[in-house]
Specification:
Elements (H helix, E strand, L loop, with lengths): L1 H47 L4 H14 L4 E5 L5 E11 L10 E14 L2 E2 L7 E2 L9 E3 L22 H9 L7 E2 L3 E3 L8 H8 L5 E11 L6 E16 L6 E7 L1 E2 L11 E6 L2
Parallel strand pairs: 5-9, 12-13
Antiparallel strand pairs: 1-2, 2-3, 3-13, 4-7, 6-11, 8-10, 9-10, 10-11
Length: 275
């Protein structure tokens, strides 16, 4: 009887260990998946904003440990994806009685940088698509030979557009609605150099806001429209609408916001978990 009871107790301990320690191990595995997901998203965001390996390493470690991991390793296999493996070593409750005093839970996640193919909250200005250098100042607009009579303003709901509507759209980018690459957006003809327009635009100096790029102009004059080719995050530096050569000056920055990927690389991206 003692032998049978002893064997039964061993079997019972094994069953309890499988039930309790197995369930705890599963919970730790889910916890590590959350840690890996957060660390991969943070690492990819840091990379998208121009961070190097040191900055990515710091972001991955910070978010992995903040979510309960003992450590994490990462790679960036193609420059656009950050792959993270997070792990945690934890003691067992009963499995130590059968020679397993601790276990390791680990999980892997990937987050990729995807450049936006659609966006909202846009400033009502559009810029000829080209490969801008991030951080470098450019003088934009002036006389547009592709759309004579237009200065780069757009009107989200179609012509006609007056100064008061333009001021409202500059002051409230949310008026733009949501636009996608390939959509045609109506032009807002003329410079519209009124005091309210200048005052509204002055509020954006030193601030950043999303603007669309175009690749093709349709028709001309007051009926012109631009085909959207991408989106960028623009910082307005200065403008002059009263000189003979009217201009806007600013630079583009790297920025991350939510939205669908698939657009050209103009510095404005979203981060998606891909694994």
């Amino acid at each position: 009887m003692l032998v049978l009871v002893s064997l039964a107790l061993v079997a019972l301990v094994v069953v309890v260990a499988l039930a309790i320690d197995g369930g705890y191990a599963y919970a730790q595995r889910r916890r590590m998946q959350n840690a890996a997901d957060a660390a991969a998203m943070a690492g990819a965001r840091t990379r998208a904003l121009g961070g190097g390996d040191v900055q990515v390493e710091a972001a991955v470690t910070q978010y992995a440990t903040a979510n309960g991991a003992d450590g994490a390793s990462w790679t960036c296999p193609n420059g656009q994806t950050v792959r993270v493996t997070a792990w945690r070593v934890f003691p067992t409750f009963f499995a130590g009685m059968v020679g397993l005093p601790q276990m390791t839970a680990s999980a892997t996640a990937e987050a990729s940088i995807q450049y936006l193919s659609a966006a909202g909250n846009l400033l009502p200005m559009i810029i000829k698509d080209q490969a801008f250098v991030i951080g470098q100042s450019y003088v934009l607009w002036g006389n547009d030979p592709e759309a004579p009579g237009n200065f780069g303003w757009v009107n989200w709901d179609g012509p006609p557009v007056g100064n008061s509507e333009l001021v409202a759209n500059i002051s409230n980018p949310g008026n733009s609605g949501y636009w996608r690459i390939g959509d045609w957006v109506p032009a807002g003809p003329g410079v519209m150099d009124s005091t309210p327009v200048r005052e509204a635009l002055n509020l954006w100096i030193g601030q950043h806001v999303t603007v669309p790029f175009y690749d093709i102009v349709q028709e001309g004059g007051s009926n012109s429209s631009y085909r959207i080719a991408g989106f960028g995050e623009f910082v307005l530096e200065a403008f002059d609408f009263q000189a003979s050569n009217k201009w806007v000056r600013g630079h583009f920055i790297r920025w991350v916001e939510s939205g669908p990927g698939g657009g050209p690389n103009r510095g404005l991206s979203s981060i998606k978990l891909t694994r």
